[in-house]
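for ur thesis appendix - MBL fold metallo-hydrolase. copy paste whatever u need, i formatted it the way the template wanted (i think)
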Amino acid sequence: MAVSTALKNIHKITIPTPFAVGPVNVYVLTGDKHILVDTGPATKEAEEVLRHGLQQLQLTPEDIHTVVTTHHHPDHVGLVHLFKDAEIIGHEKMQPWLVKDQAFFDQIYAFFRPFFAQNGVPEELVNQMVTTHQAYLTYTEKTSLTRTVREGDRIGDYTVLETPGHAQTHISLLSKDGTLIAGDHLIAHISSNAIIEAPYSSGENRAKTLLQYRDALLKIKDVSCVLPGHGEQIDDPTILIQERIKQQDEKAIMFLDKLGDSELSIFELTKLVYKRLVDKQPDLTFSETLGHVELLEEQGLVEFKKDNEGIIRYKKAKAQN
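the 3d part is after this line
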């Protein structure tokens, strides 16, 4: 768990998590005012490793001037509360997650229950997803932003890029030399899941997250180096981004082939593709299916209608039949 210095004053600490994704990388940007990007989950082991990593840099939590949160997932923000004297920075949509706004969570569940139902998801699986989500939140402690940022804002020597798709709260930091501290926006060994989210306010439409993610990937295609939230440094991100876009296109065609001549709900198509994995990871497999079907819809390859029971069913567009 040693700190490794890859670029100038940027120091990586790799922190264990209890999640399937494995360890998370947080970054200490040393200077006149030390900045920490992400923190790890709220577990005793993670806190010990984070404190040890800071100690190797001759720092304590009290020495950190600014904590930047790349997005709201607990493996990235669970220990923000340790930095009581620091400026806490994130996208404006971070705030309800950090303060654990119960009304906001109730709004999410109220959106998703009918949404999943009309996409064919059984009620017991919806209940399972809600329970999992609530358990996931136990890996964070209640805290609050002190400053919100948007596209183009500056944090020290870094420029903020809004990079939504994996999360609606997601930001990345771009240095003058083209180094991007990217959270989960781009990871070498796995493809980031474009996770569906409920709208954050009334009147806001649900984001089509895979389409959003593809646009945000293209936004960073010319950066020189990516420091990801998981795994190793990416020294040729342009090639990896091209591969990711190609993989998404190929996966969408796979879903189209699986759809065949049928009219299927998203959940039926999810079961057809992911089989038993659906029971273990219903939220992630559903997000993957919906995202790629929405990509097909954007390309004019599928269309949908509601059946007599109110279930949305997709089929190949007429030009494809």
